[in-house]
Amino acid sequence: MEELDEEFEIWLNAQIQAGVFDARNLPNKLFDAYVNHFIKALELGGGMDYLTIEYGVMPEELALLMRENIVLFSGAKTFNYVISTEALLRQNGQLITPKEFKELASQNFQLYNKTWLQTEYETALKQASNLKDWQEFQANKSDFPLLEFRTVGDQRVSEACRMKNGIVKRVDDPFWKSHSPMTHYGCRCELYPLQLNEKSITGIPKGLPKNDLGFRENIRETGRIFDKTHPYFDIPKGSKRFAKKNFNLEYSGK
């Protein structure tokens, strides 16, 4: 993401080192960058435009729930980044040198704002796309009343997804509430609509595992791209009340 470049990294970590930003005073610029990034994923995946309030096939209530979740998630990510960077100032109870801090803080920046951010963006993109597909499945279920779970069929497919490959159920079968893609981070599986004469309804394999933690909610009802089990939402007890106010962070964009 362009906003989070090396210049921004150096400035932000220097501000944390100087005590300008801490757990009670978070950088709104970082928060806004996160929200903007994730909203782009929602818009691209879900066929929406939050600026013009055009949500395509997505119900407005669901679209707004998704946006709210992204804002709260971005607040929690900002909080976690700052406290994790601040914690680097001391090692074994002793203050480290500025050079040591710069190196450790840079590694932490890369972890939060490159590696993890990419995974989170792809998750938001895929989840929004899946939600868009679901609206179309519902709209067309009189002609295509069945859904089939399909993997991409390569060696990277997880064993849990492999077990679900080929399962066919009606669109409104409760099975899909807890076993729809995404089933885990990086899941590339899809649901495909079928007519009645294309395939037969199947049973459920014995020992079929649940979706991974973080992907067990019925997102079509909650609109939560990232649910409460995500580690970012595991806030220290003393900051719980602060977290309920989204850490005093307000999104200044869309």
Protein architecture, described:
- This protein is mainly alpha-helical and about 250 residues long.
- Helix content is about 45%, strand content about 5%.
- It is built from 8 helices and 5 strands; from the N terminus they run αααββαβαβαβαα.
- It has helices at about 5-15, 30-45, 60-85, 100-140, 160-165, 175-180, 220, 240-245, and strands at about 90, 95, 145-150, 170, 190-195.
- The chain has a 3-stranded antiparallel sheet, covered by helices on one side. A two-stranded antiparallel ribbon has the order 1-2.
- The longest helix is centred in the middle third of the chain and has 42 residues, at about 100-140.
- It is elongated, with a radius of gyration of 21 Å.
- About 30% of the residues are buried.
Compact description:
This protein is mostly helical and 254 residues long.
Keywords:
254 residues, mainly alpha, three-stranded antiparallel β-sheet
Number of helices: 8
DSSP, total strands: 5
Biggest sheet: strand arrangement: 4-3-5
Unreliable residue stretches: none
- In whole angstroms, the N-to-C terminal distance is 18 Å
Roughly what fraction of the amino acids lie in strands?
Answer: 5-15%
How is the main sheet built? 3 strands, antiparallel
Write down the oligomeric state: single chain
Tell me the structural class.
Answer: mainly alpha
